[in-house]
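#structure-requests
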Amino acid sequence: MFDHETKPVTGTEESAPEAGTGSAARNPGELTDDELDQEIHGLWAHIHVAMGRAVALQAEVNRRGLWSTWGAKSPGQWLSWRAGLAVAEANRLSGVADRIDDCPNTKRALDAGELSMAKAAAITRVATPATEDTLLDYARHAPTPELESIARAYRKVTESDADDTDRRRGRYLSTFFDEHSDYIITGRLPADAGAVVDKALGIAHDSLARDPEADTSARYADALVAVAEAALAARDTGSGSDRYQVVVHVTDDVLKPGLCEVEPGARISPQTARRMACDAALVEMIQRDGTPPWPGRKSRVVPARLRRALNARDRSCRWPGCTARGRYDAHHIRFWGDGGPTMPDNLVLLCRTHHRLVHEGGFSVVKAGSEFKFLSPQGREIPPVPEPARVSGDIRAQVGALGVAVDPQTSLPPQFVGETDVGLCVHFLLRDESTAAAARASPSN
């Protein structure tokens, strides 16, 4: 365990000479063990400074909403596309950017290369003005996994009812087929809902015949299939019911004023109706001489055979940088109501978010030979792949231009011996918060 003593972070302490600068151009295989160790530490210290700059820039991107002008779903999705980062990594950096101004000492430590992005993310997730310095002290001494354990434990004991509501709103389930045609499921549920799912899986698990070659996780995968099959069997009446079908009523030309509503009567815009009609089942309602409307035959706008061809060609949402998984809409580049043919050259797969942007957000799609071009409302083309930035010099020169003197040792925690007492760490954080609350409540303040 380490002492609970906070050291101010200024980023102005005199730094040691840069490690490895003299061997930067040498083949790594020619370096001694000490030189290799020093160069790696020196390089990562500079990378941490560069990441601090990246956080500052991303914070401004988030404030301006720049990401939305490209049709991105979120700042993290935009950063993943522009910087070539994994979505999880981009979301983490964007999350730090959103919180970094609330954690000034953490910002200074990150800017000085004293803190890694992973440690900054752990701190900014839970830090308050009362606890930030203590968390920084932990970050200087504890490896990243230990710091994350402290942050998780502290968050768990300080969550309020409002936090629980926010977590419930954050529930999700995402499913898709990966490149190996395996069905991937990821998601998040609040504890009570998770307990229900866990109980259902447990019952199905116990009722299945045991596969002697399958481990526990494989048997639980089989149990999930069994739960899904039971749900389908319980709801299948064999009557071909349209109970779960969304019905939209429109006039012959949805560009003109007239009936445009979602059953049972909520009005929608013509643009929304066009989006829904791009890839839907249509039933003609026939009305003659004042008689009540009578449904005709139901048909698909995009037949199943054409849908399979589109899936084979596009595979996923064609919007630049989109990583959405799941079911995609077949968008008519020229709407079928305006004479646009339901043919591959006039169709493109889009996820629901980007399909909505095209119909209701002012974005557009045009066909250019065998490719598709996506345009912003201002007519600016969204490039399929961002042009890589031209890099001149090495990272040491780039960091030097920021005016930061980097000491490679500052990003390394001191020798850590033994297992962190997470409970004691959380106790200190709670004490800091309690002390700050008492000071705020004091009459002298």
